[in-house]
Amino acid sequence: MKLLEERILKDGNVLGENILKVDSFLTHQVDYQLMKEVGKAFANRFKDAGLTKVVTIEASGIAPALYVAEALELPMIFAKKAKNITMNEGILTAEVYSFTKQVTSTVSIAGKFLSPDDRILIIDDFLANGQAAKGLIQIIEQAGARVEAVGIVIEKSFQEGRGLLEELGYPVVSLARLDRFENGQVVFKEADI
Ligand code: 5GP
């Protein structure tokens, strides 16, 4: 997605070996106009896929996932990272190691929001080693629902996530694919959309 790649070049900051900071338009301050285009791009790709729900993980997946859900006219569910006393029945959980926080946490979705008839599009802001997406897949499959694909805003193609998810049999569709960082600059490879 050209608009996204241009924005990454303009406002993204490479941190260390493998982190891209995009807090001015995606992970902290959010550019809703860009998110609207993100929503349209995924909706265009998946409009005929028979999807029933969009699933993401808090916090930074919520903004893009909501715009994808709006464009597809579907409900959006986000997995929660902290235990919540109001979530007291039928909780589906998975353990997820956070790439950026370097801690493992239990993420959960209330079972009543997923059913065996559901065909799910997972959306997340970043794909690194695939642990967040893998946890979401485990939760969705506990409900007997089916994951159709994993949609990613920014894929770091030099990490293991895509390989892991494809090996498990889930198509990955990314709007921007980062091939490498060179002298603090992002070098892209061809994106899926
Ligand atoms: P994974 O589970 O694929 O290893 O990592 C994906 C998660 O880690 C995403 O949900 C995202 O929040 C975070 N993440 C991974 N890499 C980056 C990065 O380079 N920059 C930012 N801002 N977040 C990242």
From TrEMBL:
It holds the Pfam family Pribosyltran. Its EC number is 2.4.2.22. Its main location: cytoplasm. InterPro entries: PRTase-like, PRTase_dom, Pur/Pyrimidine_PRTase, Xanthine_PRibTrfase. PANTHER family: HYPOXANTHINE/GUANINE PHOSPHORIBOSYLTRANSFERASE, XANTHINE PHOSPHORIBOSYLTRANSFERASE. One of its GO terms (biological process) is xanthine metabolic process. The keyword Transferase applies. 5-phospho-alpha-D-ribose 1-diphosphate binds at residues 128-132. GO terms for molecular function: xanthine phosphoribosyltransferase activity. The gene is xpt. Homodimer. It is found in: Cytoplasm. Gene3D superfamilies: 3.40.50.2020. Pathway: Purine metabolism; XMP biosynthesis via salvage pathway; XMP from xanthine: step 1/1. This is Xanthine phosphoribosyltransferase. It comes from Streptococcus australis ATCC 700641. The lineage of its organism: Bacteria, Bacillati, Bacillota, Bacilli, Lactobacillales. Keywords: Cytoplasm, Glycosyltransferase, Purine salvage, Transferase. It is an enzyme of class 2 (transferase). Belongs to the purine/pyrimidine phosphoribosyltransferase family. Xpt subfamily.
